[in-house]
Design a protein that fits this description.
This protein is mainly beta and about 120 residues long. About 0% of the residues lie in helices and about 55% in strands. It is built from no helices and eleven strands. Strands 2, 4, 5, 6, 9, 10 and 11 form a seven-stranded mixed sheet that branches. The chain is globular and about 40 Å long. It starts with a strand and ends with a strand.
Length: about 120
């Protein structure tokens, strides 16, 4: 199983970024895909998830109406579109693939929101 995140970087407050997570080594369409983030000195938190069937999505309250998770099963890729970014969104963002009992993580991509 391999998950490779990309798309992080430095952005000004109010800006946008789109993260991508390319998956390989497993049947992508059957896994729930999730984005987590971890800021310095804080615990890792769930940002968004998308189901394997029907694409049902859920979001943390802190990102609702600003972030959108989506998946392209033909490309084995999950995305996180982040709009109206705030300094408190600064963190390392991790992609996660879950289907009991399997739970796999990417290496993370840094997102920094600063002027």
């Amino acid at each position: 199983v391999q998950l490779v995140e990309s798309g992080g970087g430095l952005v000004q407050p109010g800006g946008s970024l789109r993260l991508s997570c390319a998956a390989s080594g497993f049947t992508f369409s059957t896994y729930v895909m999730r984005w987590y983030r971890q800021a310095p000195g804080k615990e890792r938190e769930l940002v968004a998830r998308i189901g394997s069937v029907g694409g049902i999505t859920n979001y943390a309250d802190s990102v609702k109406d600003r972030f959108t998770i989506s998946r392209d099963n033909a490309k084995n890729t999950v995305y996180l579109q982040m709009n109206s970014l705030k300094p408190e969104d600064t963190a390392v963002y991790y992609c996660n693939a879950y289907r009991y009992p399997y739970d796999s993580w990417g290496q993370g991509t840094q997102v920094t929101v600063s002027s």
